[in-house]
Design goal:
seven-stranded mixed sheet; 7 strands; 8 helices; alpha/beta; Spore Coat Polysaccharide Biosynthesis Protein SpsA, Chain A
Length: 236
C-alpha cells in the first residue's frame, strides 16, 4: 500500500523529463515509504505532456494531472494536495536541482513533525539568485516568524491531512511552513544537497524571487488574521 506521493509540477520541462523518470525510479527502489509519483503539468507548451503520458504508461506508480492552461506553481502544488490520497505528500521541482534521494532524510523526521522541509546547503546558483533568495527568505521570516532559513526549497514532506487544509493562493507555496504553524502543528528543516540546473530554463526572474515574495507577505498577513483553525473532538 502506497504511503507517500511526490508531486512534480511541470512547466515546459521536456529536456528534463527523461532524467526525472530515471531519478524517481531509482528513489522508489530505496524509499523509506511505498511511493507514488504525481506529475502536475501546468499548461506546458512544449512536448512535456506527451513525455509525461509515455512515462506514466510504462510505470505503474506514475500518474498525472494536465491543466488546461498555465496557472502557476502554487496552483500545481494545490492540485496535487487535492488529488493525493496517501498519508504523506511531498514535492520536488522537475529541474532536479534537488535530488529525490534526499526525501529519505525528510521521511526519517516526519513521524515527529507535520512538515519537514529541506534547506539547501552549498547552493549551486548564480550570485544574483542566491542573494535575492537570501533577502526574500529574510523578509518572509520577519513576517511569518517561522524560523525557516529556506522556505523556497523545492523539497518538502507534509502530512497530507494538514496539506489539504492549506488555503492556497498564488505565491503561497513560499509559505507552506508558516501555513502548517497556523494549524498549531510542528515543523523542522533538514540540510539537503543542491545541484546546478542541467537542462531547461529557470521560470523565476528577479521580480519573482524578490518583489513578488514581498507582496505575498502582505497577502499572508491578511490571511493569517482571517484563518480558521479547528479540531474535531468526536463525532457520532
Amino acid at each position: 500500500m502506497q504511503e507517500f506521493t511526490i508531486i512534480l509540477p511541470v512547466y515546459n520541462e521536456e529536456d528534463n523529463l527523461e532524467r526525472v523518470e530515471t531519478e524517481l525510479l531509482s528513489f522508489i527502489e530505496i524509499a523509506n515509504k511505498e511511493t507514488a509519483i504525481l506529475f502536475v503539468n501546468d499548461g506546458s507548451k512544449d512536448n512535456s505532456q506527451q513525455l509525461i503520458e509515455d512515462i506514466c504508461s510504462r510505470n505503474e506508480a506514475f500518474h498525472f494531472i494536465n491543466f488546461k492552461e498555465n496557472k502557476g506553481l502554487s496552483a500545481a502544488i494545490k492540485a496535487g494536495f487535492d488529488y493525493v490520497d496517501t498519508p504523506l505528500v511531498g514535492y520536488i521541482d522537475s529541474d532536479l536541482q534537488t535530488t529525490p534521494q534526499d526525501f529519505n532524510l525528510l521521511l526519517d523526521k516526519i513521524g515527529d513533525y507535520d512538515l519537514v522541509t529541506g534547506v539547501r546547503s552549498n547552493r549551486k546558483d548564480s550570485f544574483v539568485k542566491n542573494m535575492s533568495s537570501t533577502i526574500a527568505n529574510g523578509i518572509r521570516r520577519a513576517f511569518t516568524h517561522d524560523g525557516m532559513d529556506d522556505t523556497g526549497c523545492p523539497l518538502k514532506v507534509i502530512k497530507t491531512e494538514y496539506a489539504k487544509k492549506i488555503p492556497m493562493f498564488n505565491g503561497l507555496h513560499r509559505f507552506l511552513p508558516a501555513m502548517i504553524l497556523l494549524q498549531n502543528r510542528k515543523i523542522i528543516q533538514v540540510p539537503i544537497q543542491h545541484f546546478p540546473r542541467i537542462a531547461g530554463t529557470a521560470k523565476f526572474g528577479l521580480w519573482n524571487r524578490l518583489i513578488g515574495p514581498l507582496i505575498d507577505c502582505f497577502a499572508y498577513l491578511w490571511m493569517r488574521k482571517k484563518y480558521i483553525n479547528y479540531e474535531v473532538k468526536n463525532k457520532g
